[in-house]
Specification:
transmembrane, UgpAE/MalFG_permease, MetI-like fold, Putative aldouronate transport system permease protein, two-stranded antiparallel ribbon, cell membrane, transmembrane helix, mainly alpha, globular, 18 helices
Length: 317
Protein backbone atom coordinates (compact mmCIF):
# COMPACT_ATOMS: atom_id res chain seq x y z
CA UNK A 1 0.00 0.00 0.00
CA UNK A 2 2.84 2.36 0.93
CA UNK A 3 4.65 1.71 -2.32
CA UNK A 4 1.52 2.16 -4.41
CA UNK A 5 0.84 5.57 -2.83
CA UNK A 6 4.36 6.69 -3.51
CA UNK A 7 4.06 5.51 -7.09
CA UNK A 8 0.93 7.59 -7.72
CA UNK A 9 1.41 11.37 -6.99
CA UNK A 10 -2.34 11.98 -7.22
CA UNK A 11 -3.03 9.57 -4.37
CA UNK A 12 -0.28 11.18 -2.30
CA UNK A 13 -1.91 14.60 -2.81
CA UNK A 14 -5.32 13.21 -1.86
CA UNK A 15 -3.94 11.70 1.35
CA UNK A 16 -2.24 14.96 2.24
CA UNK A 17 -5.43 16.96 1.64
CA UNK A 18 -7.49 14.60 3.75
CA UNK A 19 -4.97 14.76 6.60
CA UNK A 20 -4.81 18.58 6.66
CA UNK A 21 -8.18 19.08 8.47
CA UNK A 22 -7.19 16.39 10.96
CA UNK A 23 -3.85 18.10 11.55
CA UNK A 24 -5.51 21.51 12.08
CA UNK A 25 -8.07 19.96 14.41
CA UNK A 26 -5.34 18.29 16.42
CA UNK A 27 -3.15 21.39 16.70
CA UNK A 28 -5.83 24.11 16.68
CA UNK A 29 -4.69 25.50 20.04
CA UNK A 30 -1.25 26.33 18.63
CA UNK A 31 -2.82 28.26 15.77
CA UNK A 32 -5.08 30.11 18.19
CA UNK A 33 -1.98 31.21 20.09
CA UNK A 34 -0.42 32.35 16.80
CA UNK A 35 -3.54 34.21 15.64
CA UNK A 36 -3.12 37.46 17.69
CA UNK A 37 0.44 37.99 16.49
CA UNK A 38 -0.55 37.18 12.91
CA UNK A 39 -3.53 39.55 12.99
CA UNK A 40 -1.47 42.38 14.49
CA UNK A 41 1.23 41.85 11.86
CA UNK A 42 -1.31 41.98 9.03
CA UNK A 43 -2.97 45.12 10.41
CA UNK A 44 0.06 47.15 11.44
CA UNK A 45 2.74 45.86 9.04
CA UNK A 46 1.07 44.83 5.79
CA UNK A 47 -2.01 47.03 5.98
CA UNK A 48 -0.12 50.36 5.93
CA UNK A 49 1.75 49.25 2.80
CA UNK A 50 -1.29 50.36 0.81
CA UNK A 51 -0.50 53.94 1.82
CA UNK A 52 2.81 53.76 -0.08
CA UNK A 53 0.82 54.37 -3.26
CA UNK A 54 0.68 58.09 -2.40
CA UNK A 55 4.35 58.26 -3.43
CA UNK A 56 3.10 57.92 -7.01
CA UNK A 57 0.31 60.50 -6.66
CA UNK A 58 -0.17 64.21 -6.15
CA UNK A 59 -1.74 63.41 -2.81
CA UNK A 60 -4.35 65.65 -1.30
CA UNK A 61 -5.84 64.81 2.12
CA UNK A 62 -9.18 66.25 0.94
CA UNK A 63 -9.37 64.03 -2.18
CA UNK A 64 -7.94 61.00 -0.43
CA UNK A 65 -5.67 58.30 -1.87
CA UNK A 66 -8.10 57.13 -4.56
CA UNK A 67 -9.14 60.62 -5.60
CA UNK A 68 -5.65 62.10 -5.88
CA UNK A 69 -4.07 62.46 -9.31
CA UNK A 70 -1.59 59.84 -10.46
CA UNK A 71 1.82 61.38 -11.25
CA UNK A 72 3.95 58.25 -11.61
CA UNK A 73 7.64 58.70 -10.79
CA UNK A 74 7.48 62.49 -10.56
CA UNK A 75 8.14 62.60 -6.79
CA UNK A 76 11.13 60.26 -7.14
CA UNK A 77 12.57 62.36 -9.96
CA UNK A 78 12.02 65.47 -7.86
CA UNK A 79 14.07 63.97 -5.01
CA UNK A 80 16.84 62.61 -7.24
CA UNK A 81 17.22 65.97 -8.99
CA UNK A 82 17.05 67.94 -5.75
CA UNK A 83 20.23 69.88 -4.81
CA UNK A 84 19.95 68.30 -1.34
CA UNK A 85 19.90 64.72 -2.63
CA UNK A 86 23.64 64.07 -2.77
CA UNK A 87 24.31 65.61 0.64
CA UNK A 88 21.43 63.82 2.38
CA UNK A 89 22.08 60.47 0.70
CA UNK A 90 25.84 60.55 1.43
CA UNK A 91 25.26 61.66 5.03
CA UNK A 92 22.93 58.70 5.54
CA UNK A 93 25.27 56.26 3.83
CA UNK A 94 28.39 57.44 5.66
CA UNK A 95 26.72 57.46 9.07
CA UNK A 96 25.33 53.95 8.52
CA UNK A 97 28.46 52.48 6.94
CA UNK A 98 30.91 53.80 9.53
CA UNK A 99 28.48 52.90 12.29
CA UNK A 100 28.31 49.31 11.05
CA UNK A 101 32.07 49.12 10.51
CA UNK A 102 32.89 50.34 14.02
CA UNK A 103 30.03 48.84 16.03
CA UNK A 104 29.77 45.34 14.53
CA UNK A 105 33.00 43.87 16.04
CA UNK A 106 32.48 45.35 19.54
CA UNK A 107 29.72 42.94 20.75
CA UNK A 108 31.79 40.01 19.49
CA UNK A 109 34.86 41.19 21.42
CA UNK A 110 32.75 41.75 24.55
CA UNK A 111 31.26 38.25 24.28
CA UNK A 112 34.70 36.66 23.83
CA UNK A 113 36.03 38.53 26.86
CA UNK A 114 32.99 37.67 28.98
CA UNK A 115 33.42 34.03 28.01
CA UNK A 116 36.83 34.05 29.69
CA UNK A 117 35.40 35.16 33.05
CA UNK A 118 35.00 31.99 35.10
CA UNK A 119 33.49 33.37 38.32
CA UNK A 120 29.71 33.45 37.83
CA UNK A 121 29.10 36.32 40.26
CA UNK A 122 31.71 38.58 38.68
CA UNK A 123 30.44 37.72 35.21
CA UNK A 124 26.86 38.65 36.10
CA UNK A 125 27.92 41.99 37.56
CA UNK A 126 29.94 42.82 34.44
CA UNK A 127 27.01 41.86 32.21
CA UNK A 128 24.65 44.04 34.24
CA UNK A 129 27.05 46.97 33.87
CA UNK A 130 27.29 46.42 30.09
CA UNK A 131 23.55 45.90 29.51
CA UNK A 132 22.35 48.87 31.58
CA UNK A 133 22.95 51.65 28.96
CA UNK A 134 20.55 49.89 26.57
CA UNK A 135 17.64 50.78 28.86
CA UNK A 136 18.39 54.50 28.92
CA UNK A 137 15.97 56.54 26.80
CA UNK A 138 17.31 58.11 23.61
CA UNK A 139 16.17 61.52 24.88
CA UNK A 140 18.12 61.02 28.10
CA UNK A 141 21.22 59.86 26.19
CA UNK A 142 21.18 62.94 23.96
CA UNK A 143 20.61 65.15 26.99
CA UNK A 144 23.66 63.56 28.64
CA UNK A 145 25.71 64.21 25.50
CA UNK A 146 24.76 67.89 25.47
CA UNK A 147 25.61 68.22 29.16
CA UNK A 148 28.95 66.37 29.08
CA UNK A 149 30.08 67.91 25.78
CA UNK A 150 28.84 71.45 26.40
CA UNK A 151 31.40 74.30 26.57
CA UNK A 152 31.18 74.19 30.39
CA UNK A 153 30.83 70.40 30.68
CA UNK A 154 33.38 68.05 32.27
CA UNK A 155 34.90 67.00 28.92
CA UNK A 156 35.52 70.58 27.87
CA UNK A 157 36.88 71.47 31.27
CA UNK A 158 39.60 68.90 30.62
CA UNK A 159 40.21 70.24 27.10
CA UNK A 160 40.31 73.80 28.43
CA UNK A 161 42.94 72.72 30.97
CA UNK A 162 45.02 71.13 28.16
CA UNK A 163 44.44 73.48 25.22
CA UNK A 164 43.27 76.62 26.95
CA UNK A 165 39.91 76.72 25.11
CA UNK A 166 36.80 74.49 24.88
CA UNK A 167 35.84 72.42 21.83
CA UNK A 168 32.33 72.94 20.41
CA UNK A 169 31.54 69.25 19.97
CA UNK A 170 27.78 69.50 19.39
CA UNK A 171 28.02 72.43 16.99
CA UNK A 172 30.86 71.36 14.72
CA UNK A 173 29.72 69.18 11.75
CA UNK A 174 32.92 67.10 11.75
CA UNK A 175 32.21 65.77 15.25
CA UNK A 176 28.59 64.73 14.69
CA UNK A 177 29.25 61.27 13.19
CA UNK A 178 31.83 60.33 15.81
CA UNK A 179 29.56 61.36 18.68
CA UNK A 180 26.58 59.56 17.15
CA UNK A 181 28.47 56.31 16.47
CA UNK A 182 30.43 56.14 19.73
CA UNK A 183 27.33 56.85 21.82
CA UNK A 184 25.51 54.12 19.86
CA UNK A 185 28.29 51.66 20.69
CA UNK A 186 28.11 52.62 24.36
CA UNK A 187 24.34 52.11 24.58
CA UNK A 188 23.96 49.05 22.36
CA UNK A 189 27.13 46.94 22.29
CA UNK A 190 26.55 45.24 25.63
CA UNK A 191 22.99 44.26 24.78
CA UNK A 192 24.00 43.09 21.30
CA UNK A 193 26.59 40.77 22.82
CA UNK A 194 23.89 38.62 24.48
CA UNK A 195 23.34 36.46 21.42
CA UNK A 196 27.07 35.73 21.13
CA UNK A 197 27.40 34.99 24.86
CA UNK A 198 24.51 32.52 24.58
CA UNK A 199 26.15 30.80 21.60
CA UNK A 200 29.51 30.55 23.36
CA UNK A 201 27.80 28.98 26.39
CA UNK A 202 27.07 25.94 24.21
CA UNK A 203 30.75 25.28 23.49
CA UNK A 204 31.82 21.97 25.00
CA UNK A 205 34.39 22.70 27.76
CA UNK A 206 36.20 19.50 26.78
CA UNK A 207 37.29 21.20 23.56
CA UNK A 208 39.11 23.88 25.53
CA UNK A 209 40.57 21.28 27.89
CA UNK A 210 41.85 19.26 24.96
CA UNK A 211 43.30 22.39 23.35
CA UNK A 212 45.06 23.25 26.62
CA UNK A 213 46.62 19.79 26.72
CA UNK A 214 47.83 20.29 23.15
CA UNK A 215 49.54 23.53 24.17
CA UNK A 216 47.14 26.01 22.51
CA UNK A 217 47.22 29.49 23.96
CA UNK A 218 44.20 31.74 24.58
CA UNK A 219 44.19 33.39 21.15
CA UNK A 220 44.50 30.01 19.40
CA UNK A 221 41.56 28.61 21.38
CA UNK A 222 39.45 31.66 20.51
CA UNK A 223 40.40 31.40 16.83
CA UNK A 224 39.84 27.67 16.40
CA UNK A 225 37.02 26.97 18.91
CA UNK A 226 35.04 30.08 19.85
CA UNK A 227 34.98 31.97 16.54
CA UNK A 228 33.85 28.95 14.43
CA UNK A 229 31.01 28.43 16.93
CA UNK A 230 29.60 31.95 16.54
CA UNK A 231 30.47 32.39 12.84
CA UNK A 232 26.95 31.49 11.55
CA UNK A 233 25.41 33.96 14.00
CA UNK A 234 27.93 36.62 12.99
CA UNK A 235 26.94 36.11 9.34
CA UNK A 236 23.20 36.48 10.05
CA UNK A 237 23.66 39.52 12.29
CA UNK A 238 25.91 41.18 9.71
CA UNK A 239 23.43 40.54 6.89
CA UNK A 240 20.56 42.03 8.90
CA UNK A 241 22.68 45.02 9.94
CA UNK A 242 23.89 45.64 6.39
CA UNK A 243 20.36 45.23 5.02
CA UNK A 244 19.19 48.03 7.29
CA UNK A 245 22.22 50.20 6.62
CA UNK A 246 20.02 53.09 5.46
CA UNK A 247 17.58 52.77 8.35
CA UNK A 248 19.15 55.05 10.92
CA UNK A 249 17.29 55.89 14.08
CA UNK A 250 15.42 59.13 13.44
CA UNK A 251 14.99 60.21 17.05
CA UNK A 252 18.64 60.42 18.02
CA UNK A 253 19.78 62.14 14.83
CA UNK A 254 16.95 64.69 15.06
CA UNK A 255 17.61 65.42 18.73
CA UNK A 256 21.33 65.88 18.09
CA UNK A 257 20.78 68.31 15.23
CA UNK A 258 21.73 71.94 15.63
CA UNK A 259 21.65 74.78 13.13
CA UNK A 260 25.43 74.54 12.67
CA UNK A 261 25.89 70.77 12.28
CA UNK A 262 23.22 70.28 9.59
CA UNK A 263 25.80 69.68 6.80
CA UNK A 264 26.48 66.23 8.34
CA UNK A 265 23.44 65.60 10.55
CA UNK A 266 20.71 65.96 7.90
CA UNK A 267 19.86 62.38 6.86
CA UNK A 268 16.97 60.78 5.00
CA UNK A 269 14.79 60.02 8.10
CA UNK A 270 15.07 63.59 9.42
CA UNK A 271 14.49 64.97 5.92
CA UNK A 272 11.34 62.84 5.53
CA UNK A 273 10.04 64.08 8.88
CA UNK A 274 10.60 67.73 7.99
CA UNK A 275 9.12 67.45 4.49
CA UNK A 276 6.19 65.25 5.47
CA UNK A 277 5.01 66.39 8.89
CA UNK A 278 6.39 69.92 9.10
CA UNK A 279 5.87 71.00 5.48
CA UNK A 280 2.85 68.79 4.75
CA UNK A 281 4.21 67.39 1.46
CA UNK A 282 3.08 63.83 2.18
CA UNK A 283 3.50 62.42 -1.33
CA UNK A 284 7.06 63.67 -1.69
CA UNK A 285 8.07 62.43 1.78
CA UNK A 286 6.49 59.04 1.04
CA UNK A 287 8.52 58.81 -2.17
CA UNK A 288 11.74 59.59 -0.27
CA UNK A 289 10.92 57.00 2.38
CA UNK A 290 10.04 54.40 -0.26
CA UNK A 291 13.30 55.12 -2.07
CA UNK A 292 15.15 54.51 1.19
CA UNK A 293 13.34 51.19 1.71
CA UNK A 294 14.15 49.99 -1.82
CA UNK A 295 17.84 50.75 -1.26
CA UNK A 296 17.68 48.71 1.97
CA UNK A 297 16.13 45.72 0.19
CA UNK A 298 18.76 45.86 -2.57
CA UNK A 299 21.54 46.01 0.02
CA UNK A 300 20.02 43.09 1.97
CA UNK A 301 19.87 40.85 -1.11
CA UNK A 302 23.37 41.87 -2.25
CA UNK A 303 25.02 41.37 1.12
CA UNK A 304 23.23 38.06 1.69
CA UNK A 305 24.39 36.78 -1.72
CA UNK A 306 27.98 37.89 -1.02
CA UNK A 307 28.08 36.37 2.47
CA UNK A 308 26.71 33.06 1.18
CA UNK A 309 29.50 32.94 -1.40
CA UNK A 310 32.16 33.65 1.24
CA UNK A 311 30.62 31.59 4.06
CA UNK A 312 30.17 28.18 2.44
CA UNK A 313 26.54 28.78 1.47
CA UNK A 314 25.39 29.93 4.93
CA UNK A 315 23.30 33.08 4.82
CA UNK A 316 19.98 34.51 5.83
CA UNK A 317 18.01 32.53 3.23
Amino acid sequence: MHNSIEADPRRVTAVRRSSLPEYLKKHYFLYLMLAPALILTLIFKYGPMYGAVIAFKDFSPIKGILGSEWVGLYNFEKFLSSPNFEVIFMNTLKLSFFGLLLSFPVPILLALMLNQVRRAGVKKNIQLFLYAPNFISVVVVVGMLFIFLSPTGPVNQLFSWINGEPVMFMSRPEYFRWIYILSDIWTGAGWASIIYVAALANVDPELHNAANLDGANLLQRIRHIDLPTIRPIMAIVFILAAGGIMSIGFEKAYLMQTATNLPTSEIIPTYVYKIGLQSGDYAYSAAVGLFNSVINVILLITVNFTVKKLNEGEGLY
